[in-house]
Design brief:
By secondary structure, the chain is an all-alpha fold. The chain has helices at about 1-30, 40-65, 75-95. The protein has one domain (about 1-95). The longest helix has about 30 residues, at about 1-30. The chain is elongated, with a radius of gyration of 17 Å.
């Protein structure tokens, strides 16, 4: 029963991180195409907060991955890794019930 609870907590945390990755991606596109500007205090604060949350998770992935130029694939690798982790926790939780 404890594994099911842990699975639900980990799944919720993973959902939050994936949402933050998507927010960072959309915000980076908006900044790149000059839809929003970092001179706006709200945009700058949101950009700094999102990067502060994700940078500790993305830095090790960027160190391992080969350089791809301007295309940063580390957020996609992070989402895939978190999804795999969620599947592993789900299977552990269900196997503990059986």
């Amino acid at each position: 029963m404890i594994f099911v609870t842990l699975f639900e907590i980990v799944g919720y945390l993973i959902s939050i991180v994936v949402t933050v990755v998507i927010v960072q991606f959309v915000l980076s596109l908006l900044i790149t195409f000059n839809v929003v500007n970092l001179h706006n205090n709200l945009v700058a604060a949101l950009w700094q907060a999102v990067n502060a949350i994700l940078e500790p998770l993305l830095r090790p992935i960027r160190r391992i991955m080969p350089a791809t130029g301007a295309l940063d694939l580390s957020p996609m690798v992070l989402i895939i890794g978190l999804t795999v982790l969620q599947i592993v926790f789900k299977n552990l939780a269900y196997s503990a019930l059986a």
